[in-house]
Amino acid sequence: MTSSAADEKAQRYQIGEVAERTGVTQRTLRFYEEKGLLNPPERMEGGFRLYSQEDIQRIQYIRQLQQLLGFTLADIKEMVEAEELRQQIIATFRPDRELPARLERTDRIIDALTRQLEVVDDKVEHLQTMQEDLRAKLARMDVRKKELQASLTSQGAGGAAPEAKGKKK
Amino acid sequence: MTSSAADEKAQRYQIGEVAERTGVTQRTLRFYEEKGLLNPPERMEGGFRLYSQEDIQRIQYIRQLQQLLGFTLADIKEMVEAEELRQQIIATFRPDRELPARLERTDRIIDALTRQLEVVDDKVEHLQTMQEDLRAKLARMDVRKKELQASLTSQGAGGAAPEAKGKKK
DNA sequence: TCAAACTCTACCGTATACGTCAGGGACTGT
DNA sequence: ACAGTCCCTGACGTATACGGTAGAGTTTGA
Question: I need a surface site. Which of A64, A154, B82, B109 has the fewest CB within 10 A?
């Protein structure tokens, strides 16, 4: 009854809990805020930060971009800004005024998403090549290992296992 | 006649050319050498570095690990060491002496390769999720865009295009 | 043999992305 | 109202991965 009924389920978390949940340090959270990657969260009376659920999601998004894609925080800043714009547009209950402006923003977001997708596609492609490479190498090493083991099993006798190349041409 | 006949085709490149070919700076090449990522190349009489074709491949391999996988140079050092060991083992004309030692080294390499593959697999998986995410978002934005364009096409007339939701539910 | 181009080592500088205090408040349960 | 815990803002420190420059030596073509 003290606050508006709509806020009732709006969970807020202090920085310590956010740090635990997301796996990033408090220092890093403040750092991201300082750098504009996170928009300033609410505060309690005394100044304690209060993060929302969306803030937490955004933090995880940032980490993904960083670790999976290897983007710099500067790159990421652009991306989260585009993402924010995207969410705003989606959430907007279509005022249907200023259509050209809305269209333009939509284009900007499509651009950003397209660029991200290109990077991801490229990375996936390269990684899959690498994956195959590694698998092939591993297979070869496994063969090698079995050959060695076979040689060992047939004991250290002088010329017990002279030929193991049954497949080579 | 001055050098052994076998060396005839062994191309060597000075640091400048290597830098151009690989796209990394001379400074970085020396840096990698200093850090043990590249083993010291040959030198000319006066001390100029002479890189081999394998050196160049290794440099490209390092860059891949760095940019695609986001490994630190420390990680990469381990990996290139394992890779080197692998090549040595593969290249060795099986002296068939000290089999246990060879088997152990083989195991070490298999370990390294397995770890790399795990990282790559993991990364590919996450990236594919991201890929689908981005594609879905893009699709939604495209729909949005077409809606907006439709609204525009039907001119800015007051209530010309009030309902565009023909697909929703 | 000489100049232009290239390379050498050594050392200091820089950008990124945080870590680590210090000194001082804020919040919570009892 | 007070201990214990949590959080605040600077300010300085650190690891990584190089960049830049100086001052000197090396190579190579004419």
Answer: A154
